[in-house]
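Hi team,

Filling in the usual template for the complex we talked about on Friday. All components are listed, including any nucleic acid strands or ligand strings, so the model treats them as one assembly.

SUBMITTER: L.P.
PURPOSE: interface mapping
COMPONENTS: two
RESIDUES: 629
SEQUENCES:
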Amino acid sequence: MSEAASTSCVVRSGQPDYRRRARLARFGRAVSIFLGSLVLLAYVLAPVAWLVSSSLQTEKEIVSVPPHWIPEEPTARNFQAIFSAGEEQVTYETRKTTDASSGGYIPPTAKNLLPAMRNSFLVATIVVILNLLVGTPAAYAMSKIRYWGRDASMYFLLMTRVVPDIALVVPFFLVIRKLGLLDSIWSLVITYLAVTVPFTVFILLQYFDGLPDELDKAARVDGCSRFQALTKVFLPLAMPSLVAVVLFAFLTSWNEFLFALMFTQTVHSQTLPILVASFTSDFTISFSFINAAGVVAIVPPIIVAVVFERHIVSGLTAGAVKG
Amino acid sequence: MSTFDATAGRSGAAKRRFGYEERSALLFLLPVMTVLMAVAVFPILYSLYLSFFDVKLTRPNRTPFVWFDNYIDVFETPLFWTSVLRTVSFTVISVAAVTVIALLVSLLLNEKFRGRRLLSTVLLIPWAIPYVADALMWKWIYDSGYGALNGLLHQLGFIDKYVVWLGDQNKTIWLIANAFVWKEVPLAAILLLVTLKAIPEDLYQAAKVDGATVWRRFIHITLPSMRPGFMLVLVYETMVAIRHFDLFFVLTEGGPGDASHTLSWHIYVETFRSLSFGAGAAMSYILALITFALAYFIIRTVGRVN
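RESULT (copied from the run log):
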């Protein structure tokens, strides 16, 4: 340390020298930031770009060697097949006519993609609503009411997330079978609640803790009941964390795979990930179609992530600061 | 605490255990407790109970109580030990790579430059998409006939002919780990970035005045200050990696051979292909215990030393 300090003092004509060095350092910093950003962008975007590019290629183009990085004759054929599959019956005979160049292998299950998307949306929406209904009062109570057993309820919440999901599959399966809910979206709503509710309470709890206790007291002095204090005073203030909760519950439900794999069987309840995964194990299906299905599955979460970036980051880091 | 006493006194409740506060809290907590009792606590206990019985769906009417036989059987199965080995290598590779890459990314995003916000938004994409889509994407990239990895390496002249990437037992775990790391880096980077931002600027100024080089400032200020962030990332990523299932299901189904036969895959096969629910439940509890022990170990070693 002292060496570095002394050299800059010893050099008599040091002004231009350390200035040059400072300029060099600034240049080096700019270059490394630029290169770092470039590498990061490529790392994150290249795989996704390749997925999108493949989804727009014809059957003939996608099996070219070397691969065409950018489709030469882009086609929306795969997406048409997904979004208009209802009217169109894809059979062994007709699929040959759909893509003249090769006989594009679009599976007959393509028509299940839209219902699967609807199931995914329904499940996610119901889970979000139930999370808010159940989570907000709990977080309010744990943050603003000084009751006996407050710490215990915190540990209780934590404990429910310690056991791996795969351990819960069997008991869930038996219970859901007994309730006759197999192959119903309600089986997923029930299981996703178990996964999301503790997390929801934690995000909200963190936020309520940041709001002054005096607010609660003031509201109560003014004649509000606890319930009114929550709905009229705290909820409007807690909007950012409520948005975070909505996003998390939505994305978790949209992306979940293991439980959906176990409890859904048909188009009545299959969610998007299940259908997409079933395509990947079928070797007769066109790669470009599978990739199109993949694109359909990633577009909604990406939109959510990009639009609500700020809320997501604040939600992700809610517990991290104290951590 | 003082608030508690004041209100308790006002409502005149002599019984501190269940006064006015407790009653209103109970009302607010009732929904959450009911839901969690039904959808979390009950399944957890039920699966623990199952692990002591020999439950097979192929033989639904006879489910004898077998004490710890399920647990003992698990340890006597060679494939179980293989799966432990695979899980360990997957977890170690993934967590190490996630932590290192996330550290680099967080250092980059901690700098102030034009386009930083755009970059951090783009970074959220892998985090947001489903694991199934992540798996599908990498499966197509690794494809032996027409995949991007083969195409790129061939065009650049690194390989002479196309490679069956996922068919190579020595590479499988690494390739799956890569798909895992790609999706986990954003969250880890964001968590590390929070602790980076919390480091007071004065520390750096003081070190600069003392003539500390960039490298020394990094080693002596940045890294030690990030300890809470590292702990969080290590605990979280270890827990996620050790239980991971989706990628193994879509990419390899435990293969080739048993090259990616991890513990979670083993539990899945045992439970839903052999339909031995008792054995599956027993293994799940072993996995839960391992996870818990590891998390505890990391918190004790990384978290406490100061």
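MY TAKE: The CA atoms of residues 58 and 64 of chain A lie 10 Å apart. Chain A touches chain B through 103 residues (CB under 8 Å).

Thanks, L.
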